[in-house]
Design goal:
The protein is α+β, with helices and mostly antiparallel strands and 675 residues long. It is 28% helix and 31% strand. The longest helix is centred in the C-terminal third of the chain and has 17 residues. The radius of gyration is 32 Å and the shape is elongated. 44% of the residues are buried. Bound molecules: guanosine-5'-triphosphate (GTP) and magnesium ion. Magnesium ion binds next to α1.
């Protein structure tokens, strides 16, 4: 253990499945560091984190809580991330700027699978991380079994750093496996140093040996010592631990209780001694030590008093308030504190701060970097959508503006302007994700909205050909109107779209009016007899006549429309349903359930296979009618402990007939006559 103080501010993210106790752990860490005078509780609504009304009343985090602390003279930023799978975008964005992550889990082996996605992300991006098994104050917590179950979903070896001291079925303290010191928890205070209980000595020895063997896998010198059965000096063990964490070779495992304030000092000390400095994190991104200041945006917030805030981690150099950057001028530099950022004049390497009013800057941007490009965190795909309309007439523009801000804050929302159905659809990660957006619209923008299922983009086509005549003639004082067309309408092969052919000979319709005829046809095809856009038809203009004075573009357009209106119903119009290609990902225990869900939704399973790069997971690929996608994610999650997910893309159109089709057409009629 080196006694050197770290000169730069370090940052750690608290991540893990929902309700594991991350926000409670933030509270405990801040309290132990002396950053807050007392330790609040989730159920009392008194924690530093989760201050937004949306988080408070749900008793869950719905955005990151960013808090600063000094621990033993060193500066830290802790970012407590939401655990719900619907708010994972913030997790991924945050993880791309921190020096390390603390993965907070519950001592329940059955829940280990819920940790798989975040561990996968950490492993893939080589982000140093430790595990904190929380809630060991609950009776019957199963540490060893939990560890085994977690190891099954972690690529990196999990290395236990302490063993529990139990009284009955309760964990009352721990033995640290490096220092070989034993501590007994004291509620609300640092633990008491005690003697290693005799009954635990053998287990402690074995566990320590296991720890050393893990480290020796990456250290030949240590390996020799173990083979020669000499005890390695603690200095060597500590420096191995720090190096292996920094290189993301091992995952050290701690345990404790955020609420009972147990094991918190142990965790703080590990962070202090083992988390790499921001220079290492910058190097991981390929950012050289020298050069112009660089900061990376991991969160954007539109706050009432400050306007747009871009939360950044400074990865090189120093930034000052009012500094002119090529993306704008920093107008307000803030030190983070949940709900209450305070102004500062400048900030240096490693610090997490918010820059005010940088309009051109987005989450994921690397401000100031000309020499490096770091890929942004992946943007999560849309899984659940709702059509929104403002309750108050005239609020539409305001609504679009507010939603644009929400999308900027959380890029896993997506706004779709569906012109064909004059619909505004907000996409997101699930029901709660969308509900939270609606609450934010209300609380922050004073916008009430009504919601509906998004319209499924059905199309229609025809199965038979016909020839029709359309004539538009009006004699109403002055100029008359005259257009006269004969057209052939016939079906085309699926996917070929629309074709128009001019077969006029001998100038029976002058060339200048032909485009107007085509326009009239195209206009009609926007909404066919069943109420949907018509595709895969060919129309040929075969005959017609004109009037030297009364004919006009308008008149020919109308004539064409009339012909189409009469002709299409004779062509056996048929509904076309959009079919998606979906890939459902689940742990293989859930594969057959996932297949049943797909079949239950008129899906056609194409096959399944081991999911690449995800040991123990399957990917089921299938065709699924878009109409059945609506709450697929809700059902999938409820059957897979929340971890099942899917990706989708439009694949093809498929004829839909019978009662299902009739229903779609009726609904469409009702919707268009209302609107
Ligand atoms: N028994 C026990 N309960 C705890 C402990 N830590 C947290 N809890 C409880 O677990 C629940 C979730 O705590 P949070 O701190 O909100 O968990 P979180 O991980 O931040 O939850 P999300 O942000 O929703 O993912 C609350 O009811 C806490 O009171 C603990 O150490 N022991
Ligand atoms: Mg939380």
């Amino acid at each position: 253990m080196t006694g050197k103080t770290n000169p730069y501010s370090r940052a750690a993210a608290l991540v893990g499945p929902f309700a594991g106790g991350k926000t409670s752990l933030l509270e405990a860490l801040l309290f132990r560091a002396g950053a807050i005078p007392r330790q609040g509780r989730i159920k009392d609504g008194s924690t530093i984190g989760d201050v937004s009304p949306e988080a408070r009343h749900r008793l869950m985090s719905v955005e990151p809580n960013v808090a600063a602390a000094d621990y033993l003279g060193e500066k830290w930023t802790l970012v407590d991330c939401p655990g719900s799978v619907e708010f994972q975008q913030d997790v991924y964005n945050t993880l791309t700027v921190v020096d390390a992550a603390v993965v907070v889990v519950e001592p329940d082996p059955a829940r280990a699978v819920m940790v798989a996605p975040v561990l996968k992300f950490l492993d893939e991006h080589h982000i140093p991380h430790v595990l904190f098994i929380n809630k060991v104050d609950t009776a019957g917590s199963r540490l060893r079994e939990t560890l085994e179950a977690l190891q099954a979903v972690s690529e990196r070896p999990l290395v236990l750093r302490e063993v529990p001291i139990r009284e009955g079925d309760k964990v009352v303290g721990f033995v640290d496996l490096v220092s070989e010191r034993a501590y007994k928890y004291r509620p609300g205070q640092p633990s008491d140093l005690i003697k290693i209980p005799d009954a635990l000595k053998d287990e402690e020895r074995l566990a320590r040996q296991e720890l050393l063997e893990h480290l020796a896998d990456f250290d030949d010198h240590l390996m020799e010592e173990l083979l020669e059965e000499t005890q390695p000096p603690n200095e060597e063990v500590y420096s191995d631990l720090a190096r292996d964490l920094a290189d993301d070779l091992i995952v050290p495992v701690f345990f404790g209780s955020a609420e009972a304030d147990s094991g918190i000092t142990r965790l703080w000390k590990a962070l202090r001694h083992e988390v790499p400095p921001p220079t290492a994190t910058a190097a991981r991104f390929g950012i050289a030590e020298d050069g112009a200041p660089v900061a990376r945006v991991f969160k954007t917030v539109h706050a009432a008093h400050t306007g747009k805030l871009s939360y950044v981690r400074i990865l090189r150099g120093e930034f000052t308030d009012n500094q002119a950057l090529d993306v704008g001028r920093i107008s307000g530099l803030y030190l983070p504190a949940p709900g209450n950022p305070t102004k500062a004049a400048k900030a240096g390497l490693g610090e997490v701060v918010a820059f005010g009013r940088l309009d051109g800057v987005n989450t994921g941007d690397l401000i100031g970097a000309k020499d490096v490009a770091v890929p942004p965190a992946p943007r999560l795909e849309s899984l659940f959508g709702l059509a929104l309309s403002a309750e108050k007439k005239g609020d539409d523009v305001k609504l679009t503006g507010a939603l644009t801000k929400l999308v900027e804050e959380d890029p896993s929302y997506r706004l779709e302007q569906n012109a064909a159905f004059s619909e505004l659809v907000l996409w997101g990660q699930g029901e709660i994700h969308l509900l939270v957006a609606l609450e934010r619209l209300k609380s922050r923008f004073n916008l009430g909205v009504t919601t509906a299922k998004p319209t499924v983009p059905y199309k229609e086509t025809i199965k038979k050909a016909t020839s029709v005549h359309g004539r538009h003639k009006k004699q109403s004082g002055g100029h008359g109107q005259f257009g006269d067309v004969h057209i052939d309408i016939k079906p085309q092969q699926r996917g070929t779209g629309f074709a128009f052919e001019d077969k006029i000979v001998g100038g029976v319709i002058p060339k200048q009016y032909i485009p107007a005829v085509e326009e009239g046809v195209v206009d009609f095809l926007r909404q066919g007899p069943l109420g949907f856009p018509v595709v895969d038809v060919a129309v040929a203009l075969t005959m017609g006549s004109f009037h030297p004075v009364d004919s006009s573009d308008m008149a020919f357009k109308t004539a064409a429309r009339l012909a189409m209106t009469e002709g299409l119903p004779q062509c056996e119009p048929v509904l076309l349903e959009p079919i998606l290609h979906v890939e459902v990902s689940v742990p293989s225990d859930f594969t057959s359930k996932a297949q049943r869900i797909i079949s239950g939704r008129r899906g056609q399973i194409l096959g399944y296979d081991a999911k690449e790069g995800w040991p123990g997971w399957d990917a089921v690929s299938a065709y699924l009618p878009q109409a059945e996608m609506g709450d697929l994610i809700v059902e999938l999650r409820s059957l897979t402990m929340g971890v099942g997910t899917f990706s989708w893309k439009f694949d093809h159109l498929q004829e839909l007939s019978g009662r299902a089709a009739d229903k779609v057409v009726e609904d469409r009629k009702a919707a268009t006559s209302n609107g």
